[in-house]
Design goal:
The complex is a heterodimer of chains A (277) and B (399). Chain A is of the alpha/beta class. Chain A has one domain: HUPs (Rossmann fold, 3-Layer(aba) Sandwich), CATH 3.40.50.620. In chain A, 50% of the residues are buried. About 5% of the residues of chain A have low confidence. Chain B has twelve helices and 22 strands. The N and C termini of chain B lie far apart (81 Å). Chain B has three domains: 57 residues, Alpha-Beta Plaits, CATH 3.30.70; 180 residues, Rossmann fold (3-Layer(aba) Sandwich), CATH 3.40.50.620; 122 residues, TPP-binding domain (Rossmann fold), CATH 3.40.50. Classes of the chains: A alpha/beta (277), B alpha/beta (399). At the A-B interface, α3, α4, β7, β8 and β9 of A face α6, α7, β11, β13 and β14 of B. Bound molecules: flavin-adenine dinucleotide (2 copies). One flavin-adenine dinucleotide sits at the interface of chains B and A.
Chain lengths: 277, 399
């Protein structure tokens, strides 16, 4: 019989993984309370950014295979603790929330700075982020963090092939091409949904981590060096949202009604007019 | 500490700010608004407040005007495809030219890579005033770290007021790194750009998966950086060459932490994003076999079949064909949605299509909000009949 677990000889490694997770408003899902029939809007309908579950899963799977720890790191309001709890239920070892009124109004530059500043005090060999969020939707925070930390990054990772203490090998989407890249650690990857299937939160882990504290760090804990005091939140954000408005309506719409035969005729005529047929 | 300024003497605690806030950034505490970490300072509540009690937190520091004015002109960062200049570069140049003309300033284009003379010339014949070439073997394949160094050099050399990059996987990997290096603002995936009389770039982009549009400024910093969504802006045309070509030095770090091991073309199945015609299937298609009629229609129109997420989840089509927020974004010339309700996550991936036809028996299906031709009807009646008619035509022509 071989060693147990089968990978025991490989588990000598200890790699520090950090998953960046953000709480976002729930999109497009209106829930109805089955008892009252009312719309459920209890406080903030929030969820973990779906891409970040893939980032966390990537970290957990590598840890389970290679050994090490997974820290989930989030910046957000106090209720973003829920996202870190969920990370515990999936298997994260440590949860850190960066929360301070001074962080509010951060654009991607200030967000990346704040996360990178915290990462100086968190051991990290491999940092995993989602490819983008479903709210701000910029895909900018991951690469920004890597630049602040002066480490390599790859965005839009389709597959993580192998990793060890020194290097990670991944396949990335580069538009009309895919690249296989090798990055020396520490490094940061932003992952697509293709990279894996996130595990479900487990009830067992939920019980086991019931008393595990979530660490909350404020601006003072991040101790910005001289000259960087104004890098946080609104003050540290070069971009500002000038205006928010609904997407343009659809004045061009033509509605076609009628018997199926009539609709078919019109459709055929239209496709011919456009020269598709 | 409050993010927005509250004139408490005017506030009557009506809660209009709480009601209008899309981000849950404000709550009423003891009858007055308190802004929390959710506040994005979007200003909706300022307009919504019936008593004018809310304001921005003091006028922004207008920046060192003398310093900002050192930055002039529009810089486009080109992108390469497998066989030369990526067409998105011409779109950036078309838009860059328009903005440069509005400012009365010049348009420069950076071409970075290895052996890029042909690409540089393409930029000259498409109207660049100035082409900056960074030609070095270590730039042969895209890696963010050397490219950031190279582009930083180009920006510090030319001091543009505006930098436009492609909203492609490569551009969106590189631009945020460069923006951090330059400590400046970057707006993602813009679909419309304008400049105002102060030379500020008004950058409009969809967010929340296309649910809202936001206009973003970063006018107190230079350069003002934006990535631009592909296939939205018109391409620059050919012009008599008047511009100049400059080679910039590039001294790579001898030990970049990343290497490209291999580059491959995307697998052929991944065509839904490139197709000119997409026939998209949703849950209104009841059985996997029924996809056959959509494949036949797609073939007849020279297109491919795409789908909504549930069909991928059911294993009927590969995930490469999924259109939407968590799938591909497509901008075909023609998009035919069959049995798709039009959830925002789906619409986010196809609303940019040039012409949208939707077939759905439910008049109120949200897909009709984005459709140009709304066919209220049953795909199972319309599509097979259409295929028959197309076949008849073919037969008629053959005789
Ligand atoms: C309508 C709207 C438009 C905006 N447009 C811009 C813009 O164009 N440019 C700009 O600079 N800012 C913009 N912002 C601000 C931006 O949303 C915030 O800076 C936000 O904190 C992070 O950006 P994101 O959500 O786009 O993250 P992304 O860059 O899309 O996130 C990528 C990954 O980074 C990690 N991550 C991101 N945020 C956090 C976090 N708080 N904690 C932990 N991990 C995190 C996650 O792993 C995530 O998957 C916009 C905001 C709004 C509301
Ligand atoms: C985070 C997140 C990401 C997501 N990403 C995506 C994504 O990328 N892409 C995506 O598509 N979805 C995505 N979704 C799922 C999305 O919310 C919807 O659930 C999904 O798009 C619905 O697919 P559908 O329109 O095919 O099905 P349904 O909503 O069930 O609609 C079926 C439609 O078919 C019509 N119909 C019925 N019979 C017929 C007939 N005979 N002929 C014609 N029409 C008929 C019905 O009237 C109905 O409108 C995402 C969801 C979440 C939460």
């Amino acid at each position: 019989m071989g060693p147990y677990p089968p990978d025991a000889d490989r588990m000598v490694m200890h790699i520090e993984f950090v998953a960046l997770v953000k709480q976002v408003p729930r999109t497009g899902e209106v829930e109805v309370d089955p008892e009252t029939g009312n719309l459920v809007r209890e406080g903030v309908a929030a969820q973990t950014n779906p891409y970040d579950l893939h980032a966390l899963e990537a970290a957990l799977a590598l840890r389970d295979r290679l050994g090490g720890t997974v820290t989930a790191l989030s910046m957000g309001p106090p209720q973003a603790e829920d996202t870190l709890r969920e990370a515990f239920w999936m298997g994260a070892d440590r949860g850190i929330l960066l929360s301070d009124a001074a962080f509010a109004g951060a654009d991607t530059l200030a967000t990346a700075y704040t996360l990178a500043r915290a990462l100086r005090d968190i051991p990290h060999d491999l940092v995993l982020a989602g490819m983008q969020t479903t709210d701000g939707d910029t895909a900018q925070v991951g690469p920004g963090v890597a630049e602040f930390l002066h480490i390599a990054h790859a965005s839009y990772v389709l597959r993580i092939e192998e990793a060890d203490r020194r290097e990670v090998c991944a396949v990335v989407d580069a538009g009309d091409r895919v690249q296989r890249v090798a990055l020396a650690l520490p490094a940061l990857l932003t992952v697509t949904r293709e990279v894996n299937q996130p595990r479900l939160p487990s009830f067992r882990r939920r019980l086991a981590t019931r008393d595990r504290p979530i660490e909350t760090w404020c601006r003072e804990d991040l101790a910005p060096p001289e000259g960087e005091e104004a890098y946080f939140g609104l003050e540290g954000s070069p971009t500002w949202v000038e205006e928010i408005f609904p997407p343009p309506g659809n004045p061009e719409r033509e509605t076609w009604r009628g018997r199926p035969g009539e609709l078919t005729d019109r459709l055929l005529a239209q496709l011919e007019e456009w020269k598709y047929l | 500490m409050s993010v927005l300024r509250v004139a408490y003497e005017n506030c009557d605690g009506c809660g209009a700010c709480v009601a209008v806030c899309p981000f849950d950034g404000v709550v009423l505490e003891e009858g007055v608004p308190r802004f929390g970490a959710g506040c994005r300072v979007c200003g909706l509540c300022i307009d919504a407040c019936p008593r004018g009690a809310l304001g921005l937190p003091g006028e922004e520091d207008a920046g060192d005007v003398a310093d900002l004015s050192r930055y002039r002109g529009v810089m486009v960062v080109s992108e390469r495809a497998a066989d030369g200049l990526d067409p998105v570069t011409l779109e950036l140049m078309g838009e860059g030219r328009r903005l440069a003309d509005a400012l009365g300033e010049a348009l420069s284009v950076v071409v970075a890579g290895a052996d890029v003379d042909a690409e540089a010339r393409e930029c000259l014949v498409h109207g660049a005033d100035r082409v900056l070439v960074l030609d070095h073997p270590s730039l042969a394949h895209f890696r963010p770290e050397p490219y950031t160094d190279a582009l930083e050099g180009a920006v510090r050399h030319a001091l543009p007021s505006i930098v436009l990059m492609a909203g492609t996987p490569v551009g969106r990997s590189l631009a945020p790194r460069l923006a951090v290096r330059l400590r400046t603002g970057l707006t993602a995936d813009c679909t419309s750009l304008e400049v105002n009389e102060r030379g500020e770039l008004l950058q409009t982009r969809p967010a929340f998966g296309g649910d809202i549009m936001a206009t973003i400024l970063s006018g107190n910093h230079r350069p003002q950086m934006a990535t631009v969504r592909p296939r939205v802006m018109p391409r620059a045309g050919r012009l008599p060459v008047t511009g100049t070509l400059e080679r910039l030095p590039f001294r790579p770090d001898p030990e970049y932490p990343g290497r490209v091991l291999e580059v491959r073309e995307k697998p052929a199945a991944d065509t839904v994003a490139d197709a000119d015609v997409v026939v998209a299937a949703g849950r209104g298609i009841r059985r996997a076999e029924d996809l056959d009629m959509l494949h036949r229609l797609a073939d007849a129109l020279g297109g491919v079949v795409g789908c909504s997420r549930p069909l991928v989840e059911a294993g009927w089509l590969p995930s490469t064909q999924q259109v939407g927020l968590s799938g591909r974004t497509v901008r075909p010339k023609l998009y035919i949605a069959c049995g798709i309700s039009g959830a925002i996550q789906h619409v986010a991936g196809m609303r940019g299509s040039e012409r949208i036809i939707a077939i759905n028996p439910d008049e109120n299906a949200p897909i009709f909000d984005v459709a140009h031709h709304a066919l209220v009807g049953d795909a199972y009646e319309i599509i097979p009949a259409l295929l028959d008619r197309i076949e008849e035509r073919g037969d008629a022509r053959a005789v």
